[in-house]
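To whoever is on call:

I kicked off a structure prediction for a single chain this morning and the downstream step that reads the tokens threw a length-mismatch warning. I double-checked the sequence; it's 192 residues and nothing unusual in it as far as I can see. Pasting both halves so you can look.
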Amino acid sequence: PQMRLHLADILRRDRNFVDAAREYRQVFETHKNGDLREESLRLAIECLTEDVNLSRKSAGQKEIGGYSYAKVVTKGQAPIPYSTSESALLDTMATYLKTYPKSKYCPDLEYEMAYIKYVHFDWDSALSILQAFVSRNPRHAAAKKASFLVLDIYNQRGKYAELVAACKGFLGNRALVDAPFTREVSGVLRQT
């Protein structure tokens, strides 16, 4: 496992992110040391995120990360297939969340995972993750963004009753609300 870890580090340094992620994932799957396993899985996620962002940047799209929040603007869009790197990233994130559910990194990974699904119009999956994220992490830095993505999904789908219910639920969550958030969500509620 140490040789594989060194190989992954070299591949990452050479910006060969997909192969580096594959090697880090192998360290996770074969090593017995819990800390090294968790670190290697996080490094695999970082490498795959880098690769996804390189592709997104070259396509003129916003990068994933840092609590991304660029809304999509197309109603009725069919889901967009995931690239190989995006599929690997989502799979690795899911493995991390399942293996280390108490990790301090889980909320960030949940949000990023949901956002990737959101920009691919994978509404049901994104909605499920975003709603759970807001419910479990109302004080998280991305909780308000996640709330607005939930509202946007309902709006994009024309599910106005669910949109109204979500607005009321968010406004009733004392850990989530502040003056700007209340003003904006109340505005959505008035327009619906």
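Update from on-call: the warning came from a stale cache, not from the record. Cleared it. Sanity check on the structure: The mean pLDDT is 92.
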